[in-house]
Amino acid sequence: MSPPRTDLAPPKDDPITLDELKxxxxxxxxxxxxxxxxxxxxxxxxxxxxYGPTGSYHIFAGKDGSRGLGKSSxxxxxxxxxxxxxxxxxxxxxxxxxDFFSKRYNIVGKVV
Length: 112
Description:
Layout: E1 15-16, H1 18-22, E2 34-37, E3 40-43, H2 48-51, H3 66-71, H4 88-102, E4 106-111
Parallel strand pairs: 1-4
Antiparallel strand pairs: 2-3, 3-4
């Protein structure tokens, strides 16, 4: 696991729709790779081997996959933004993922 970064840019709160977010799934060379957790959009472009088309976590690229992260699931049907039905233990896992990403990736917007 990589250590927290000290060179992150100040968080942005630019509005990004889920349809716009889909465009940043790593399938277009030269375009950033974004994913969202609990509505916060992170730029994960510096890890294309993880989030790009051949990466093990590509399922989350270009979408808000909060439910899947909370459930520790890589199933496509779980990679959705609605985490309202997660159990307390799963919400704890989701919050841990959010904290992890917040310390390692630039925040580029909010899902609207």
